[in-house]
Specification:
By secondary structure, the chain is mostly helical. The chain is built from nine helices and five strands; from the N terminus they run ααβββααααββααα. The strands form two sheets. Strands 1-2-3 form a three-stranded antiparallel beta sheet. It has a two-stranded antiparallel ribbon with strand order 4-5. It is globular. The termini are far apart.
Length: 178
């Protein structure tokens, strides 16, 4: 007896469910830079901070490899607070996933929410950092750095050249850190 097409479709969908669940882990999904180019493209700059058309902080890398201050500082802040779990350069570890791809796939607001509030996925727990000034005062910097890594716009390691920190960025840091 032949099954109707709808039963076969449902059976195939149920069989594929575990694969879909695995593929939904953003850290495992490759980033196609062409697909996200508009999301990270610089639309404007204000006192050393670069933004996309949607007013999201983004990176700026000059032809000679000079990175904007937020990308450079994001490297420093990421390696001070995040790499212990997520590995050097956002590449992941046996303890926590790579987040360079997650930053791109999640986008700014979801990334911000997870860092601030944490989350639990089975046995995997991302603690909340909403009260940690060393993270919160530099969350845009960390996001910008990880976005640049996810897009492969900056190589692994400390950026060799950086823009000067603007007075506005310095004032904002001082105010946040108290």
């Amino acid at each position: 007896m032949r099954r109707p097409a709808s039963d076969i479709t449902i059976a195939l969908a149920l069989t594929a469910l575990p694969l879909a669940a695995v593929a939904s882990n953003w850290d495992d999904q490759a980033v196609d830079p062409a697909q996200f180019e508009e999301q990270v493209a610089v639309s404007y700059e204000e006192d050393g901070r670069y933004y996309s058309e949607e007013d999201i902080p983004t990176y700026n890398i000059a032809e000679d490899g000079t990175v904007d201050w937020l990308t450079f500082n994001g490297f420093r802040r990421y390696h001070a607070e995040c790499h212990v779990c997520h590995g050097p350069d956002g590449e992941g570890s046996t303890y926590a996933p790579k987040i360079k791809n997650s930053a791109i796939h999640m986008g700014y607001y979801d990334f911000f929410d997870v860092v601030v509030n944490g989350r639990q996925n089975g046995n995997s727990v991302m603690p909340h950092f909403g009260e940690n000034r060393n993270v919160m005062c530099y969350l845009d910097d960390i996001y910008v750095y990880l976005s640049a890594r996810g897009m492969e716009a900056v190589p692994r390691g400390r950026p060799a050249k950086k823009e000067k920190k603007s007075d506005l960025i310095r004032e904002a840091e001082d105010a946040c850190m108290g």
